[in-house]
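Review this chain:
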Amino acid sequence: MNFFLMLAMVLFLMLPCCAQSDHLIAQEMVGKWCYISETAATDNNHSNSCITLQADGSYEAVLDRSSFANGTPFPISQDADRGTWWVKDNRLFYNSDSNGESSFAFQKQNHPRNESIPLIIVNGIMFATASAHEPW
């Protein structure tokens, strides 16, 4: 069989799977992000509540709810979770292995007291980078 014909067939067979996926992995958000209080002035004040967003679209979340201010709502109901993630507009979508698909609003900004610390703010909760990230 002709190489180009075989290549065309392989690409044609791949189209349905790839064309259906509109899941965008925001590479600038890849890394480990940990809860930080608004009053913390340095990135050394991370808690043990962290979300790790991988470049392959997977995530792992470990939440220590005692580190959150009393009554702080967080959309993930478990203390540990994993699954896949993607971004569309200003929403961070996730498909939890145990709880299914959902999303929440997010924004990127620098810490209000230390502009050199990039944050992801999820439902009003600040997560500071625990990996190498330049400020937004």
Residues 2-20 have pLDDT under 50 and may be disordered. DSSP finds one helix and eight strands in the chain.
